[in-house]
Design goal:
alpha/beta; ten-stranded mixed sheet; two-stranded parallel ribbon; 18 strands; about 20% strand; globular
Amino acid sequence: MSKIRMSTPLVEMDGDEMTRILWQMIKDQLICPFVDLKTEYFDLGLPERDRTHDQVTIDAAEATKRLGVAVKCATITPNAARMDEYHLHEMWKSPNGTIRALLDGTVFRAPIVVKGIDPYVRTWKKPITIARHAYGDVYKNCELQIPGPGTVELVYTPADGGDEVRATVQEFDQPGIAQGIHNLDASIASFARASFEYALSTGQDIWFAAKDTISKTYDHRFKDIFAEVFEAEYKARFEEAGIEYFYTLIDDAVARVIRSEGGFIWACKNYDGDVMSDMLSTAFGSLAMMTSVLVSPHGYFEYEAAHGTVQRHYYKHLAGEKTSTNPVATIFAWTGALAKRGELDGLDELVAFSRRLEKATIDTIESGVMTGDLATITSLPNPVRADTEEFIAAIAARM
């Protein structure tokens, strides 16, 4: 059988632990037998990031700007325990945060819906898509551990030599902690436009939520910019399309989401989107059943799995034990990237292959063959609990 040929490479970002194992299995069994795969490869595994002092992450992001499409494996964001485990030079920041900051994009995450995997929230009838701002906030923060009594201030020094502006964060009378976060008007406006454009392209209502009643400057700025962009650029288009933009407080949004039928886009600030996308994916079935794509206003696309590196399964794998790790989100990261590459390059055959692989994956689950996380919650009778290799082999057989 002749393989589908690619005209332009896509950026391939390898990752860590069990998802790194899945990555190679998916390439070997589900992609390379059918596609003459062309990639520019970057190893974003933690050892290589440490060896290069995280330069490899920056290089991968720059390559994405050049080639336009990337696919990324899940990676470790180290904490103190990982510092010791991997003997790191320093506690490197989230590679996702670094890449998102460089590409200035918005992350869209939506559950992969299959028959027999019913949402835990009984009112949900349609998928809910999270639009997550992908710049700033806690992911680009500055933190201090305060050793004792003293003053922590925010200080703004104008570049043009104007007067300093100072605000007291806290007068500490004992040890504590402090954190500074920031965002940019331009990034928030890009987030708003990407979210509104996505709503128009999918014909869905869009909600945005923050906590402007408490954060009267920071969160209120998000609310104001969304409102300004909507009124100036999108109100008439939304009315023509018959869809709605709705703003509310984040706690009210959570209550409304739980009572809803779904079928809308929920735009969230960076941290809110990180947390709520995991909540939604789990409530729809599994963390491994969610697509994730970073869409940049500059025309860059980065596809990834929305979950972590599955550390517990990786240790079992190293011990020679079989695991039932769900590879669906990682498969859909590959199919999303390949379909986008095919779309941009006019390769209909590559787009069609990607859709066939997605259908084969869903059909395998709906036939009753699935990994352990789904077998424990499915409403299908007598599911076959497959280990990772068996599940991927079943998809390959359908292909």
